[in-house]
Amino acid sequence: MRRTVKFLHTVAGMGLAGGLAVYIGVLHAAPDHATTIEYAGTREALAFAVKWIILPSMLITVVSGLIAMIVHPPFMDTPWVWVKALTGLLFFEATLASLDAPAQQAAAAMAQAVAGEIDPETLAELVRNEWGAWYMLLGLSIANVALGIWRPRFAKRDVKKETGSGAS
Q: How big is the CA angle at 83 (ends 87 and 25), to the nearest 5 degrees?
């Protein structure tokens, strides 16, 4: 069971990383907001990546990580696992708040811009903070992966032992 959960967690993490890479690549290559027809396709691609790649992968990653804590009892007493779980949940919430909802709003606004109901500058306001959200998600992601690999002890150091000033 542990190996299955670990495999699922790893594969879902790879899917999440791939989805985030696709999103960043599409966002980086996006045409100017003023060319609304071309930009409409970009917003649809971003909404698709969030809905069908990033969110499912992230959900599987978080759930399989929590299941791993249950099927491997020593994880329950390990502080780094709890910190990793917390950063994973923060990543999940940040993705929902800064990617999913804005991607859906921007796709809807893009349809309005193509129809001439709103100007492209209004759309630009909706997606202005997208790169900041990406930097935040990137930081949380790096912290989460680092915790999984590094596995810090988070224990107090025994200063007497290190300095040799203990009783001999």
A: 25
